[in-house]
Write a structure and sequence with these properties.
about 250 residues, alpha/beta, Rossmann fold, 2 domains, 6-stranded mixed β-sheet, 4-stranded parallel β-sheet, 10 strands
Length: about 250
């Protein structure tokens, strides 16, 4: 079993980490930094880029399942890709159904929020999801275009002091945000959940577990833990595949 992941950067690494821990397979992860972020691309251009990466994973790497480890790609490209390729796809959407698992008084009091990207907020797919999972419109939604690029910069330089300062500056005009629970609606955001929890005084929730469960359902291989956590990694900036350890990227400092 070969499973391919791709994102415009390193979003989805948290999902990859749990998949490696729970599900035996050969994993291929493309960090498409040459085109980061997808939200700045024209729709047709972004869909074509997703097609190219999928073709690379399916045709060249013989992947049996593709994970779109990106909310923007899921929102705008997954339906098109399903028409073009005869493999299962697993996408990522904001985990709005989480509100059904917590006390109703927390939800009714407006104590649940969601952090998303501007393109996710505008996507018809997200609007349909919001109406379906939150018909009373009780979950506040905040779209931040600067946060994912900030996390990508943090992934590169690992300067936690600089990152915390920039994060505080980004959120300062928005504070206080009175959310007890914060749904993370971009695959980059779980990588910094500890920072967000301290800054916003909230509990962060991601769809990671649900995505991995779906991945396991659509995969035919046996569940097993991989001891070394090895995966095949490509950053499109340098263009070379290499064998990597998840510990090289996670946890962030």
């Amino acid at each position: 079993m070969r499973i391919g992941f791709f994102d415009s950067g390193h979003g989805g690494l948290e999902i990859l980490k749990e998949a490696i821990e729970r599900h035996g397979a050969d994993y291929f992860f493309i960090a498409d930094e040459s085109f980061h972020p997808y939200g700045k691309m024209e729709l047709s251009e972004m869909q074509e880029r997703c097609r190219q990466l999928t073709e690379l994973l399916v045709v060249e790497k013989k992947c049996d399942v593709i994970v779109l480890a990106c909310n923007t790609a899921t929102a705008y490209a997954i339906d098109v890709l399903r028409q073009q390729f005869d493999v299962p796809f697993v996408g990522v959407e904001p985990y709005l159904s989480y509100i059904n698992t917590i006390p109703n008084e927390i939800v009714s009091a407006g104590k649940v929020g969601a952090l998303v990207t501007p393109n996710t907020l505008k996507a018809p797919r997200f609007k349909e999801l919001k109406q379906k999972r939150d018909p009373r419109d009780l979950v506040s939604v905040l779209a931040l275009g600067e946060l994912a690029p900030l996390i990508e910069e943090f992934m590169r330089d690992r300067d936690s002091i600089k990152f915390e300062k920039n994060l505080e500056q980004l959120f300062e005009p928005l504070l206080p945000i009175d959310w007890e629970e914060t749904i993370l609606g971009c695959t980059h955001y779980p990588l910094i959940s500890s920072y967000l929890e301290r800054l916003l005084k909230t509990r962060c929730v991601s769809p990671t577990g649900a995505v991995v469960e779906q991945l396991i359902r659509v995969s035919s291989s046996e569940k097993s833990k991989l001891d070394k956590g090895l995966f095949n990694y490509l950053n499109t900036i340098d263009g070379h595949w290499r064998e990597a350890l998840i510990s090289e990227f996670l946890p962030l400092p």
